[in-house]
C-alpha cells in the first residue's frame, strides 16, 4: 500500500508545550512500516501555561474559562501543525491527542476524559483532515482511555524475546507489558508530576533540570513510606491516573514535617523509580525500555537501574527516539483510524473490545479515506535510512 505522511501532535501532563512528530506509515501484510521524518516542539506562552495549570484540580474551571482555553490551545496546536507540515514537506493527515484537562476516574473505572485543543483550528490552518479526541471512544467502551501507548508498544516489541516492558515517563508514568499471557498496560503513578510540583513550590523553577537538586539530597525513608502507602499502587490493572490525583495539593497534604528542598526532590525521585520498578518486577519484565522526558533525568535513571536487575534501555536503542515516542504514537493512532483499524488494545485499557478511535474533522477538500484495511496488523517495523523492512 501507499505511504501516508502523518503529523502527530500532543501536549503531555507537564503542560509545557506541544510535541510534534512526522512519520510515514504504510500497511504491509500483517505489519505496519514506519519511517520517522523528524520532530519539533512549540512551547506554550507562559501566560497560557499558567492558566492551564490553574485550571487543574484543585483549581476551578468554569464554562467561560474552558471555552477560552479550548480555543487558545486549539490555535497553538494549529501553529504546531503548520510547523509539522513544513517539516514534512507536506502531509496527508494530522492526528492530535490534544491537551488533557481532566481525567475522571472513580475507583477502578474511568467515567470520562476531556482533552482540549479544538481541531477545527488545525483543519483551518492546514487544510488537512484532523483526527482528534482519541481517548473518549475507549472510555465509552469501558476502558480507561489511557495509556494508549499499549497499541504502539505491543506492535513494536512483538518480536522481542522474553517479556519486554516499555515505560514512558512523562508527568505520569505508564508501562506496557509485551510477551506475557496478554498485552497489559497501565499508569504506574507519578512520573515527573510531583517532582515538577515540588520544584515550583520550593524553588520557583518549572523543574529540577537533570535531577541536579535531587542529586545533592538524601531520601527520607519515612516520607517515602508514607507516599508509597497511597492505595493507587495496590489497585489492579487496568488503571489510570493523572494530575487530578498526583498534584500540588496532594504534595502539600503529605508534607507535614519540614524537609530540605534537596531531600524532598531526592525522595520524590525515589518514589517514581520505586513505583515503576515495583510494577516492572510484578509483571516479570525481562527487559525495560524507557522513553519520555524522564530519560533526561540521570538521577532517576540511576535509581531505576539500581532497583531493577534486568537490562534498562532507552527506546532510541531500539529505533524510536525517546523524546518523540508519544508524538509518533499519536501519528500511528491517526493512521490506524484513517484505515478503520482499532487503535486500542482492550487488554491494556480494559475496553470491552477493539474500537476505531477518534473523531474526524474534514480539511479544505472532500474527505476521501482509503479503503478499510482487511487485516489487523500484528507488528510494527521501524525503518531507518539504512534499513528496509528490518528493525
UniProtKB/TrEMBL annotation:
Gene3D superfamilies: 3.30.420.40. The keyword Oxidoreductase does not apply. It is an enzyme of class 2 (transferase). ATP binds at residues 12-19. Keywords: ATP-binding, Carbohydrate metabolism, Kinase, Nucleotide-binding, Transferase. Pathway: Cell wall biogenesis; peptidoglycan recycling; Amino-sugar metabolism; 1,6-anhydro-N-acetylmuramate degradation. It catalyses: 1,6-anhydro-N-acetyl-beta-muramate + ATP + H2O = N-acetyl-D-muramate 6-phosphate + ADP + H(+). Pfam families: AnmK. InterPro entries: Anhydro_N_Ac-Mur_kinase, ATPase_NBD. One of its GO terms (molecular function) is kinase activity. Its EC number is 2.7.1.170. Belongs to the anhydro-N-acetylmuramic acid kinase family. Catalyzes the specific phosphorylation of 1,6-anhydro-N-acetylmuramic acid (anhMurNAc) with the simultaneous cleavage of the 1,6-anhydro ring, generating MurNAc-6-P. Is required for the utilization of anhMurNAc either imported from the medium or derived from its own cell wall murein, and thus plays a role in cell wall recycling. This is Anhydro-N-acetylmuramic acid kinase.
Amino acid at each position: 500500500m501507499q505511504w501516508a505522511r502523518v503529523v502527530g501532535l500532543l501536549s503531555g501532563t507537564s503542560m509545557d508545550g506541544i510535541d510534534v512528530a512526522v512519520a510515514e506509515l504504510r500497511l504491509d501484510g500483517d505489519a505496519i512500516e514506519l519511517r520517522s521524518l523528524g520532530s519539533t516542539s512549540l512551547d506554550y506562552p507562559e501566560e497560557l501555561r499558567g492558566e492551564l495549570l490553574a485550571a487543574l484540580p484543585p483549581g476551578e474551571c468554569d464554562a467561560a474559562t474552558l471555552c477560552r482555553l479550548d480555543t487558545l490551545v486549539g490555535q497553538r496546536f494549529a501553529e504546531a501543525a503548520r510547523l509539522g507540515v513544513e517539516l514534512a514537506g507536506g502531509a496527508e493527515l494530522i492526528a492530535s491527542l490534544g491537551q488533557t484537562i481532566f481525567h475522571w476516574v472513580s475507583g477502578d473505572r474511568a467515567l470520562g476524559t476531556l482533552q482540549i485543543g479544538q481541531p477545527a483550528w488545525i483543519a483551518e490552518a492546514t487544510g488537512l483532515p484532523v483526527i482528534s479526541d482519541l481517548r473518549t471512544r475507549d472510555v465509552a467502551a469501558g476502558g480507561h482511555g489511557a495509556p494508549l501507548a499499549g497499541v504502539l508498544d505491543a506492535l513494536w516489541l512483538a518480536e522481542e524475546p522474553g517479556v519486554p516492558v516499555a515505560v514512558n515517563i512523562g508527568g505520569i508514568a505508564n508501562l506496557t507489558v509485551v510477551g506475557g499471557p496478554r498485552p497489559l498496560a497501565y499508569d504506574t503513578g507519578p512520573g515527573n508530576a510531583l517532582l515538577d510540583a515540588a520544584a515550583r513550590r520550593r524553588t520557583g523553577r518549572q523543574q529540577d533540570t537533570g535531577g541536579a537538586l535531587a542529586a545533592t539530597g538524601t531520601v527520607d525513608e519515612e516520607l517515602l513510606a508514607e507516599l508509597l502507602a497511597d492505595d493507587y499502587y495496590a489497585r489492579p490493572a487496568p488503571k489510570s491516573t493523572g494530575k487530578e490525583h498526583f498534584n500540588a495539593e496532594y504534595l502539600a497534604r503529605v508534607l507535614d514535617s519540614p524537609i530540605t528542598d534537596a531531600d524532598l526532590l531526592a525522595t520524590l525521585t525515589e518514589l517514581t523509580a520505586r513505583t515503576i520498578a515495583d510494577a516492572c518486577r510484578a509483571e516479570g519484565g525481562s527487559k525495560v525500555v524507557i522513553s519520555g522526558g524522564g530519560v533526561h533525568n540521570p538521577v532517576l535513571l540511576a535509581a531505576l537501574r539500581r532497583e531493577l536487575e534486568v537490562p534498562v534501555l532507552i527506546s532510541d536503542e531500539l529505533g524510536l527516539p525517546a523524546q518523540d515516542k508519544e508524538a509518533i504514537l499519536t501519528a500511528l493512532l491517526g493512521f490506524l483510524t484513517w484505515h478503520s483499524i482499532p487503535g486500542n488494545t482492550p487488554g491494556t485499557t480494559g475496553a470491552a473490545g477493539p474500537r476505531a478511535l477518534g473523531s474526524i474533522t474534514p480539511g479544505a477538500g472532500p474527505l476521501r479515506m482509503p479503503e478499510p484495511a482487511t487485516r489487523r496488523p500484528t507488528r510494527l517495523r521501524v525503518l531507518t535510512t539504512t534499513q528496509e523492512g528490518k528493525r
